[in-house]
Amino acid sequence: MKILQVNDQISIKRSVDNGTGEQRKSVVNILQEVKKSGDKALHHFTLRFDGVSIERHRVTEVEIEKAFGEIDSEMIGIIEEAANHIEDFHRMQKRESWFKTLDNGTLLGQKMTPLDSVGVYVPGGTAAYPSSVLMNVLPAKVAGVKRIVMVSPPDQDGKIPAGVLVAAKVAGVEEIYKVGGAQAVGALAYGTESIKPVDKIVGPGNIYVALAKREVFGDVDIDMIAGPSEIVVLADETASPVEAAADLLSQAEHDENASAVVVTTSEELAGEISREVDRQLEDLPRRAIAAKSIEQFGAIYVVKELADAIEVVNQLAPEHLEILTVDPMDVMAKIRHAGAIFLGRFSSEPVGDYFAGPNHVLPTNGTARFSSPLNVDDFIKKSSIISYSKAALEQNYKKIAALARLEGLEAHARAVEVRFTKD
Fold first, then answer.
1. Which of 2, 183, 325, 381, CA to CA, is 20 to 30 A from 215?
2. What is the SS3 assignment for 193?
3. 83 near 138, Cβ under 8 Å?
4. Does 155 appear as a known binding residue?
5. 380: part of which helix (H) or strand (E)?
6. In 3D, which of 144, 149, 147 has the Cα closest to residue 114?
């Protein structure tokens, strides 16, 4: 890994993949065809892109029962336990409606209402992502969303991986469809004969899914357009180079564009981590991907003081931040920008990916400066409540009318004055 001395502003921002002109054109055409032809378009594009003819896109209870038979009971128990942790954590986020009354009879408040329906996209292809199901579905469930719809591309046998179906059942999903890509996003946004539209679409996907989500935004809400995964390890001389290197590679193996960075006060540790990354790469199954990630976007930054390291982290605003120092809690208090923060050597990043409870859908590419992990609030609308009494309006209507006229809006002024105009 590159070892660099920090002298100025640094960044791990990578260019956002906005797709090619041909990709964007293709996505628009797919969405228009789904809007026009519904299930017929879903059948056509599933055959074209996934290589399988699907007669009935909705997953049956028989298919779900079969999936449970393909997963051993110990793994089902692990998925259930992870789901419990995730649900318990998100229950702590839930907020209630509130109201405030004043002496003059005014009532003000905020009414919290869950979305009616949410669509969850779960990637397919060569991998299965049960954790993605749990992380996207359970906050919506806790928020009180009544209808949660899951879509995922079928494999060449016309199936969704058993682990994904088990996780969906454990999370309480009752509608699951074997459809992926931009066509699935179109079905969720616009509806077809068999899939009713939803109000919001969440979940990761490839560039075609990302472009489709951007295209339908406005007709429906979306969560975010996430970039490649990233980790920053903030370490002092007490950190284990073996453990730090392993944590770096846990993210580097995601994607060639993933970013794995160390910020440390120890030049000796920097060298040890660099050598250890090379050693651990040797027998890593996804070595080619991880090595490319480390080569392109990996770096070890050496700073003089811990305060400098903290400032560098705040510049980077990473998706994942591990703090491997003598007093991680003290350092954490000084961090302003990070999606998820992992404290100490026993809080390795995969703990948060799968099991601890906090959401693993996190802001990337420096957006932790202004955005948050996926959470219960993402599935709730807030309505303002205003109730003025006669006394309250009489006390204030002239001020309101004056403000309206300052803006040149005479009808606004008259709307409050008319209530006190004598016939």
1. 381
2. coil
3. yes
4. no
5. strand 380-387
6. 144
Q: What backbone phi and psi angles, to 5 degrees, belong to 382?
A: -120, 125
90 is in an annotated binding site: no
For residue 287, what is the enclosing H or E element?
helix 287-297
Looking at 319, 322, 349, 360, which residue is catalytic?
A: 319
> Which position among 33, 320, 322, 349 bears the catalytic label?
320
For strand 259-264 and strand 340-343, is the pairing parallel, antiparallel, or unpaired?
Answer: unpaired
Opening angle at CA 253, ends 247 and 255, nearest 5: 130
Give the whole-angstrom CA distance, residue 272 versus residue 241: 6
* Whether 320 is catalytic: yes
Domains and CATH numbers, the chain: 3-16+227-356 (3.40.50.1980), 21-99+113-222 (3.40.50.1980), 388-420 (no CATH)
pLDDT digits (tens, 9 = 90+) for 186-209: 999 999 999 999 999 999 988 999
At 14, is the secondary structure helix, strand, or coil? coil
Note whether 380 and 96 are within 8 A (CB): no
243 labelled binding-site residue? no
Residue 388 is labelled as binding a ligand = no
Helix (H, G, I), strand (E, B) or coil at 324: strand
Instruction: Flag whether 229 is marked binding.
Output: yes
Give the pair of three-digit tokens for residue 378. 């993402």
Nearest to 326 by CA among 308, 306, 351: 306
| 293-345 per-position pLDDT tens digit | 999 999 999 999 999 999 999 999 999 999 999 999 999 999 999 999 999 99
Is residue 412 annotated as involved in ligand binding?
yes
Closest CA to 142 of 110, 171, 163: 171
pTM over 0.85: yes
Backbone torsions φ then ψ of 253, nearest 5 degrees: -75, -10
Whether 251 has a binding-site annotation, put simply, is: yes
319 is a catalytic site residue: yes
